[in-house]
Amino acid sequence: MREFWVASGHHLTRRADHGGLQVTPELIMAYLARPELLPPDDACDAERALHAALMADPLRQVLPAEITAIVDEDARENWGFMLTFRDRIAGAPSLEAAYLSFAQKGAAGVPPLFLTQLCQLVLRNALDGCEDPYVLRAAEVFYRPQKATLHEGTLLLADAEVVEIQQRGASQSHLTPLAALLDPVPEFGDLDVMDDENAWTYWSRSDANTMIMNLGGNAKARAGLCTAIELWVAHLLGVRVKVEPQASIEDRDWRWFAGLDSEGTKIGNALWNGAALGPTMTERVVALLRLTFEDERMVDPALRGKPVYLIGATDADQIWRMKPQNLLAGLPLAAGRAS
After folding, report:
1. pTM summary value
2. Tens of pLDDT, residues 251-276
3. Is the Cβ–Cβ distance between 308 and 257 less than 8 Å?
4. Which of 151, 211, 222, 284 has the smallest number of CB atoms closer than 10 Å to its CB?
């Protein structure tokens, strides 16, 4: 079995008999080593003592007095966030159960960065054993914002952070007009568009996020996104679904949708209310998918036999920020099935 997403930290967890991942001291130590939690040079003695004590025993109980003793207000807040997060994931039966709780019951007091990292960790477990690089590249959209662009009429997605770094480097190197002309996708620098000839290279660069996803022109890329969603829902909800790309919503009696992000939710709400979409809003749609349930008994009785439409869209800056938690909290499951 080939390795991928080493940076997720899945090797620092323990897989329980039920298949879910469980917290280990090593995983918490990895969080404690993050720059946000390393005491700076001017940190007070109380903060240094707390950090040292947790590095020695990452799951130890922390008394409120240990937090209030920290002089810097921002540091106190950061430690409060970290310990709230630690206690919730450590107290859950699995990291999957913790993420599901955040998605369905709220994640107040937990930094979005931690939720994103937890998403990748859980998704890595859901995809364990996957041998299809198209699925793995598509799954990156769950936890990495994507920059969308139309190139020769085809929708391409590239890692937004990597694109920003590429563009910054290009501006500093004063890219010549000829070099820009020869670049296959000028907006994305020298990144490779994944195809059948180079897909095998994904295994050695899965943590680099340097492959462009040809969502508009490659059926394998679209199928990869659908498969990633199917595996995510099955792993976390125990519900088997089938997801397929759609060119449009032809069903005049459509009953349910789930936004894959905040922009997709806005578009879905507008359509639900019968509003006409302007060209600007329509052009932002990057994913329109049709989800059906393998076992209709899992569905709310009032919606059995009806598909769920999934809508994903970019923001005004053409960035797609998928919210995979919406797939866990937004499906019309029968009572008692969403856990």
Report:
1. 0.91
2. 888 899 999 999 999 999 998 888 87
3. yes
4. 151
